[in-house]
Every structure is written in C-alpha cells, then in structure tokens.
Amino acid sequence: MSHLLTIIGPGVMAEAILKNLLTKKIIESSSITISGPSNERVQYLAENYKIHPQTDNSEAVRKADIILFCIKPQRVDKVLEGLRGVLKKDALAISIVAGAKMDKISRTLQHEQVIRAMPNTPSQIGKGITVWTASKSVSQSNLNFARSIFNAMGAEIFTENEDDLDRATALSGTGPAYVYLFMEAMVDAGVHLGFPRRIAERLVIETLRGSVDYYDQGEEKGRHLAALRNQVTSPGGTSAEALYFLEKAGFRTAISRAIWAAYQRTLELGQDINSSPKD
Q1: pTM of the full structure
Q2: Per-residue pLDDT tens digits for 184-238
C-alpha cells in the first residue's frame, strides 16, 4: 500500500525533496499533499508536480502516514501547536528544522513517532548527505521508509545520538559554505595570476570534482587524506611551498575554529527554539 505523504512548508528544500522523491519513484504524485500559508506557492507546486494542494495544515495531515516538516525555525511553535493531537497514532513526523529537538516536536504535537534529520544543500540535486535519528517508538516500517526518503536526496547516516545532528549542522550542513568560500578564494587567485575568470572557475571546479572522485573511487578509495596529499607534495616542489604558507597562515586552525563557532551557534539557536514556553 502506498504511503500518504504531506509536506508542511512549500519552500526550496521542500520542492527539492519532492522532486527527488518523484524522480526516483519513491512515492507517486497522487499520494503527496503540499501545505503552506502561501496559496500561490502551494498552487505552483501542485500544478508543476501533479500533487494535492492545501493551505489548512490540519486538513493536510489528518490522513497522512508521513508528515515532513520543512518549515523555518521561527515558525516551529505556531505550526506544531496548530497540529497538536491531530496526527494519526501510527503516523510518522519527520522534521528537517534546524535546532528543533525530537522532545520539543513530540511534546508540542503530542505524538510519539518522530524523526529528526539534517540534510545539506547538495540534497537539492540528490547529491547531499543527511544525518538523522529517530525516537524509540518509530516502527521498523517507518524507519525503512524514512531511509528511502533520505537516500533519494543522496547519502544518509543514521545515529542514535541526537546531539550528532547539532555537530552535523556545523560540519556537513554548513559545510558547503566553507567549500564555496575556498573555491572563491582559489578562483580569485587564478584571476590574479592572469587567467580569465571563466577559465579560473572551470579549473577550480574540475580540480575539486576530480579530487573528490579520486579519493572516493578506485585504488585510492578509503586511503587517509594525508596520504593523498603527500602524493602531490614533492620535496621542495610547488605543492610543498604552497602548503607551507597555508600552514603558516593557520589554515587548519581557521577551519577548525570556524566549524566550532558554527557548532556553538547551532547550540545557541537550538536552546532558543527548545526553551520556548509554548509547549
């Protein structure tokens, strides 16, 4: 029997998940409902993906087997309170809301089966990584279906420790921003050397793509990153000279401190969300 899925929040990530689910045939369009406050956006998604539109969240979830929350953190209280006690007992609530803990979601909804997930931006094209966890009451069939949803978005890692999602937010969730900044700096350096920007961009993009593929495939798969770095670092060569200056500038320390800062900010935002008295 096909699952009935309701997506609450018709934003960019919701559309990306929707597109991946349909493209990879995880669920049929006739089994999906999209709900949100903007009738224009809801109708746009409904018409483009042949799914059911709804602007009343309560009506949208009443018969749903899976409810996927793709809402902004500042809307958590209002949306969850509006659905308190409405979900079917055996329904599964999946949240990708940054910082909102399962206990908060469960208490506000008055519902036991809850999954919390942290996907990242590349999930929009099915190339992301999602870290997720589940409350102990989630059934095996719901766990399996949730895993199929996350696999449609790319790779997935299950953890029993919910605190890992805060760590993942700082590392993989925010990670694309670090990568793009690094790429931008390389491109600017290429332009400074004399390349046209379009050529510098192409060189950087293909270098990063190839480096990741080289690490992840063939004989090099699973090797320590330091071993791969040493392969292109000849004594007294250009790589050695460049790496010396990166180390001298505190490159590793800067990256580590940036990720730690993102983690601390994640905890602060989560505290604000989860300490709300509106439970």
Answers
A1: 0.89
A2: 999 999 999 999 999 999 999 999 999 998 888 866 677 889 988 999 999 999 9
Residues 87 and 221 placed together within one structural domain of the fold:
no
Q: Two tokens at 267?
A: 């905890």
Euclidean distance between CA atoms 220 and 226, whole angstroms: 12
Residue 241: domain span: 175-266
Torsion of CA 139, 160, 154, 69, to 10 degrees: 60
Dump pLDDT digits (tens) for 104-142. 999 999 999 999 999 999 999 999 999 999 999 999 999
35 within 8 A of 67, measured Cβ to Cβ = no
Residue 83 lies in a domain: yes
User: How many domains does the structure of the chain reveal?
Assistant: 2
Shared domain check, 98 and 185: no
One-letter amino acid for residue 158 of the chain: F
Task: Write b or e for each residue in 23-39: b if 16 or more Cβ atoms lie within 10 A of its Cβ, otherwise e.
Answer: eeebbeeebbbbbbeee
Of 132, 159, 186, which closes a domain?
A: 159
Q: How far apart are CA 247 and CA 252, in angstroms?
A: 7
